[in-house]
Amino acid sequence: MTTYDFDLYVIGGGSGGVRAARMAAGTGARVAIAEEYRYGGTCVIRGCVPKKLLVYASHFHEDFEDAAGFGWSVGDSSHDWPALIAAKDKEINRLERVYEDLLSKAGVTIHKGHARFCDPHTVEIEGRRHTAETVLIATGGSPVFPPDGHGWDLAISSNEVFHLAELPRRVVVCGGGYIAVEFAGVFNGLGSAVTQLYRGPQILRGFDEDVRNALAGEIVKKGIDLRVETIIDRIEQAPDGLHIKLSDGSSLEADAVLAATGRRPNVANLGLDAAEVELTAKGAVKVDAYSRSNQPHIYALGDVTDRIALTPVAIEEAMAFVDTVYRGRPRAMDHGNVPSAVFSQPPVSTVGLSEQAARDKHGAVDVYRSTFRPMKHTLSGRDEKTMMKMIVERATQKVVGLHMVGLDAPEIVQGMAVAIKAGATKADFDATVGIHPTAAEEFVTMREPIPEPEQKAAE
Fold first, then answer.
1. Active-site entry in 59, 150, 377, 436
2. Active site residue 436
3. CA 208 – CA 211 distance, rounded (Å)
4. Which residues lie closer than 8 Å to 355 by C-beta, 6 or more apart?
5. Residues 11-70: pLDDT tens digits?
6. How many domains, the chain?
7. pTM confidence score
8. Residue 240 belongs to domain spanning
9. What letters, b where the CB count within 10 A reaches 16 and e where it falls short, cover 32-45?
């Protein structure tokens, strides 16, 4: 009978890897985990958490302005970028210690350094080799830069943006996904002049069309210079900053260029060939519904599998992995109806299918949509609108999609996601009493679908 150093070796100390290691150790398994950067992973160290702290900071300028409509005299204000970054760093350092403490208290052996396979059951880290009965790959993803040769070495990614010594006065954000729109909002809110470039016809590809159009309209009103179907041709160093040549022949001057043009699975230098682990055509670890690779004892979860790149998804995949391997309760995570949010300004949140995806899957649908000024802005005077949308499968009256752009959207949609996951119908929403006065009550007071001609025109 083969004896291994560990029952489980986890490669990657992000949210998914840490959860899997802790929970597996709780079953009595001998567990080790390796992380080459900082425990906490992308989300905690240079993703969701620090990003949202910066979003909070950047929104205060609007709060100060809005206060006047409610009788407040706030006075002059200014922002200290280094103080914000120092406060952010202090909180991230605290969270990193929390993650390591949780692992230690669970009895997990912690290794620091880059781990790679030597063979299907052996992992090497910092010159030392360890064997494991089961190995879990949870190495996450990393930013992708456009091809070299066009000056992209002068740009920064979403990793470096959290460590800028000074707030750039002029920023070009390249990309149209959630990272791009979030950081465009952060820089704009803190006072930078922001130009956002996207190669496609509209930002947030893959989201519902009404969501995409509503957010684009709002961020333009806030002062972001949004240019679609435009890309950077070349970035050059200039005496007073960066000179950016665009695909349409025009040019820009900036102090920083943020490349938010996508992410890819972290599979480099993991020794996957030695472990004989198969990859997908996109370079992700290929797994089945139970997160198992082609090697029956090697699993992978989170962004490295390129399924749904969200922290809560990685954590739930980790729980399903532990149930399957160590608790004798095999189960696959249900990736359907996963809610998500974009912390743009205003924020976006969604669960279920877009209108077009719902038509493709279900055929006839009823669409309910409402656009209105939030109650807060009736006194603030700010020209910001909220858009809420519900898609209902006509044959069953089941709600199959729910979308919102506006204040508190993520907080509102999280609760609605429970109803969607439970299979609620439009009648269930109609029978629910709203909380007044709130924006959320709009979802339970939508009575008439928009006319069919309008629906078709939106397709």
1. 436
2. yes
3. 5
4. 208, 209, 210, 365, 367, 389, 391, 401, 455, 458, 459
5. 999 999 999 999 999 999 999 999 999 999 999 999 999 999 999 999 999 999 999 999
6. 3
7. 0.94
8. 152-261
9. bbbbbbbbbbbbbb
